[in-house]
Amino acid sequence: MIEYRLAKPADCANLSALSIQVWLDTYAIEGVKDSFSDYLFGSFLPEHFENKLSNNRYAMIVAIRDDYLLGYIMLDFKSFHKTPDNGFEISRLYVSQHFKGQGIGKQLLNEMDNAYGKKCWLAAYSGNIAAISFYKYLGFKDIDSAIFILNDEKVENRILAK
Description:
The chain is of the alpha+beta class. The protein has a single domain, classed as Aminopeptidase (3-Layer(aba) Sandwich), CATH 3.40.630. The chain is about 35% helix and about 35% strand. It has a seven-stranded mixed β-sheet, sandwiched between helices.
């Protein structure tokens, strides 16, 4: 049985490892290069998650089965897209590749809805068709685009909101 709960400091190392795994599985489809490594080690170290957990600007809900982290959702309550009317940001929704298609991402979103409300937005890499399709299936609307800078590279993201 999968347990959904708020993340705690003891989860930070696993959050770091899972984030790197999911990010590489999703974006490093041609291999790993310097800009990827720089981003990963700047964004996904355990200390990054410890800092987020100690700041009430953020919340994280984890999916755990038998002490194994399967996925998580991270929210940023002070980030907004153009106007606060779009709600808070889902800054991450990561599920291990081994557990995709089992309803974990959907349940993490349901847990978020129940705890914090449904008015939210997110940025998804425009080339990640599976993620964009998943969010649209769950009622998100494509409302805009934004450019994410990965070191010196420009990456187009779609902005989805509900």
